[in-house]
Amino acid sequence: MRIKQCYKSYQECYKILERRRFQDERMKMHFESGVRMGIGAFNLMISMLPPRILRLLEFVGFTGDKASGLADLEVSSNLHNGLRAPLASIILMSYHAYISQVLGNGDGNINFASSILKPCLEQFPKGALFLLFAARIQEVNGQLDEALGLYEQSIDSQSSWRHLHHLCYWQMMWCSAFKCEWLFAMKYAEVLSRESSWSKSTYLYLKGIFMLMSEDQSAAMTEHVVAIFTKVPELKVRVAGKSLPIEKFAIRRVQRFFAQGNRLTLPALEVIYIWNGFAIIYKSAPLAEPILQLIEAKVAEVSGDGQSKTQADDLGLCLLLKAMCLVCRRDSAGAEACLRELVSMEKRLVEDKHLVPYAVAEMGFLALRDGKPREAQSHLEAALNNYKGYQLESRLHFRLHAALEELKRQKDPAKTAGQSAAGRP
Prior knowledge:
Helix content is 73%, strand content 1%. The protein is built from 22 helices and two strands. It has a two-stranded antiparallel ribbon. The chain starts with a helix and ends with a helix. About 2% of the residues have low confidence.
C-alpha cells in the first residue's frame, strides 16, 4: 500500500510539474529532477516484470513503460545541478550495465551508460561507486583485465562501505570465471562466504563448484568440496517467507553431487549460463575457446558413461553450453543444431526438465539476433506458454519478456513511441 501511495504521489507531482508556472527556475529544476527520477524509476522497474505480474499491477493502477521511464530518467540526469540528477544517473547506469545484462538479454546501451558516467568520474575520480560502474562497463564490453583493475581501485578507494566491496568481489569472481581462472574465482567466492550475509548457501556452492573445475582433483580437494557442500542446505535463507530460487537450484545440485558419487557436469559453466554470462563472453569471442574445449572433452566423457541415470541430462547441459559458445563464435547454424538436438531429447531427461524451455528460448534469442522476427516470435512464445513448473522459470521469463518487448519495438517503433507517451501520468 505504501508503494502505491508513493507512486500516486509521484503522479500528482508530475501533474503539478506540467501545470504550474514556477517563479523560481532553480526550484523548478530541483522539483523536476526529483519527479522525473521517481516516475521514471517506477515505469522502468514495473516494465521489466513478466506479463502476468505486469497485467495485475496495471489493473491496480500502476503503469510500466520502459521507453517512458528511460526518457524521464534521462531528462532528470541531464538536469546536472538538479537535486536528484545524480540518483537518476545511478539508476540509468544500473539498468544499462547491470539489470538489462542479468535479467534481460544483454541489450543495455553501454555507450549511453559510459556517457553518463564520464562527467561523474570527472567530478569524483576516486568515487567508489563510479569506479564500480566504470569496471562493470569494461566487464560488459569483454575487457576483463581492465575491469578487474578498476574493481580493485573501487575497493581501495574506501573502507567504510563493505557492501560495495562485496559487489566488487562478486563481479571479480565472475570475471575470473569467464577467464576460466577457477582458483581466483574460488578465492572471491570464499571472501563473500565469510563477509557477506546475502546468501552464504549460494557463495559456498559457488566456491565448491569452482574448486571442482580446477586442475587439482586430488582426494584432499574432493574431501574439501564434500565438506563445503554439506553446509549448503543448512545455510539457506528465506526472504519474505520464500527461499531464493538460486539457493533451491544450488541445493538440488548438491544433492545430485552426492547421489552421483561426488560428481557434477561442468557446474561452473552452468552458473555462468544461468547468470547470463555468455552475453559478456559474446563481446570477446576468444574467451569462448577454452570453454568450448572443456565442453567437448566433457561430451566425450558423458557419451561413454552409459551407466549414469542422468546421462541424458548431462549431455543436454553440454549441448546447451556448446550452443552458447557457438553463438559467441557467430556460428548460428551450429548453435541451432545443438539446441534442436537438446529439444529432441526431452523425453529422455530425468531431472533437468528446464533445459528444454531454455533451449527453445535460446533459439528465439538467436533468431531475434539474426533478424528473423517470425521465427523468433514462434520460439519465444513457445518457451513462454508451453512449459510450466521447471527450475529457474521466473529467471527465464524475465529474459523472454525483454526479448518479446524488443521484438514488438522492432515491428512497430511508431506504436511503441506512442505507448511511451501514454505511460506518463
